[in-house]
């Protein structure tokens, strides 16, 4: 019997179920994994925006993480919203004590609604976490902040930024074209000293993309744990994500940016 990968999401919440750990759990299940979740920050939000956040003490996150790793063999970890420096430090410390075989970091900073999901003062700590993970999945504004540069103007510029982040950190980077203008929506895996693996995609004209980044990083961590092949994991994830965005309008959840159809 093949072991179903046990995938842990470390992320914030979305009570409307579209982003954060809720999206991650659906995404992990849809991509063939067993989902687990440790909450970093409680977020009072809906499809229109973030109303308030509440972070339990970072030591309580450590208790959650230890409770999982003391009992369950973890095959992959997806890290999402971390919120502040104390939380980043707690996760970094746990990663040192319990090195999981696969760690994917979605460096969540600002939501589509323009609400901040990471303290500005914590950007340096998040940068320092990047070399500690196997794959980082920034959107283009987040990629620019990680490099402390202006946002990429076009796809060639985005690829160049991704390659430089991979060189500087030794970590693979998923460069995502979702924030570019135009009809194309490519994604690429770039690694230090590797030729980029580029997948072309079509842009789907829909406002319902809330939680797309969360869902994609959780799916990639899961697919990677299923068969261990980065390129295949991205190819399968992108096909699944395209279908999930294409059928998002059927859901009719909320009046703002609705969730994708996991
Ligand atoms: N809320 C939480 C808890 C998240 O982790 C994220 C992830 O990026 C978001 C909201 C942002 O959602 P989006 O920008 O896709 O609307």
TrEMBL record:
GO molecular-function term, one example from the UniProt record: phosphomethylpyrimidine kinase activity
Enzyme's top EC category: transferase
PANTHER family for the chain: HYDROXYMETHYLPYRIMIDINE_PHOSPHOMETHYLPYRIMIDINE KINASE THI20-RELATED, PHOSPHOMETHYLPYRIMIDINE KINASE
Name listed for the protein in its UniProt record: Hydroxymethylpyrimidine/phosphomethylpyrimidine kinase/hydroxymethylpyrimidine kinase/phosphomethylpyrimidine kinase/thiamine-phosphate diphosphorylase
Superkingdom of source: Bacteria
Keyword hit for ATP-binding: yes
Alphabetized InterPro entries for the sequence: HMP/HMP-P_kinase_dom, PM/HMP-P_kinase-1, Ribokinase-like
GO cellular component terms given for this protein: cytosol
Protein function: Catalyzes the phosphorylation of hydroxymethylpyrimidine phosphate (HMP-P) to HMP-PP, and of HMP to HMP-P.
UniProt keywords, alphabetically: ATP-binding, Kinase, Nucleotide-binding, Thiamine biosynthesis, Transferase
EC number: 2.5.1.3, 2.7.1.49, 2.7.4.7
Statement: the UniProt record of this protein carries the keyword ATP-binding: yes
Reaction equations catalysed: 4-amino-2-methyl-5-(phosphooxymethyl)pyrimidine + ATP = 4-amino-2-methyl-5-(diphosphooxymethyl)pyrimidine + ADP; 4-amino-5-hydroxymethyl-2-methylpyrimidine + ATP = 4-amino-2-methyl-5-(phosphooxymethyl)pyrimidine + ADP + H(+)
Biological process according to GO: thiamine biosynthetic process
NCBIfam families reported for this sequence: HMP-P_kinase
Pathway entry: Cofactor biosynthesis; thiamine diphosphate biosynthesis; 4-amino-2-methyl-5-diphosphomethylpyrimidine from 5-amino-1-(5-phospho-D-ribosyl)imidazole: step 3/3
Span of domain Pyridoxamine kinase/Phosphomethylpyrimidine kinase: 14-261
């Amino acid at each position: 019997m093949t072991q179903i990968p046990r995938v842990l999401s470390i992320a914030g919440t979305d009570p409307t179920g579209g982003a954060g750990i809720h999206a991650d759990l659906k995404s992990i299940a849809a991509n063939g994994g067993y989902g687990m979740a440790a909450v970093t920050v409680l977020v009072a939000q809906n499809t229109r925006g973030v109303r308030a956040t509440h972070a339990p003490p970072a030591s309580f996150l450590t208790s959650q993480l230890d409770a999982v790793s003391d009992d369950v063999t973890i095959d992959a970890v997806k890290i999402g919203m971390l919120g502040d420096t104390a939380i980043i430090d707690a996760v970094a410390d746990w990663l040192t004590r319990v090195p999981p075989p696969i760690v994917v970091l979605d460096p969540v900073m600002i939501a589509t609604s323009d609400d901040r999901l990471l303290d500005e003062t914590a950007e340096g700590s998040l940068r320092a976490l990047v070399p500690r993970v196997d794959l980082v999945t920034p959107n283009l504004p987040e990629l620019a902040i990680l490099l402390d540069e202006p946002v990429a103007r076009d796809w060639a510029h985005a690829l160049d930024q991704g390659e430089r982040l991979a060189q500087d950190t030794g970590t693979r980077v998923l460069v995502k074209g979702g924030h570019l203008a135009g009809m194309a929506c490519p994604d690429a895996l770039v690694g230090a000293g590797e030729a980029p693996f580029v997948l072309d995609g079509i842009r789907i004209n829909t406002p319902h993309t809330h939680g797309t980044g969360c869902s994609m990083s959780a799916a990639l961590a899961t697919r990677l744990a299923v068969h261990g092949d980065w390129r295949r994991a991205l190819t399968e994830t992108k096909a699944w994500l395209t279908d999930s965005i294409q059928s998002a309008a059927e859901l009719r959840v909320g009046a703002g940016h609705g969730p994708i159809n996991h």
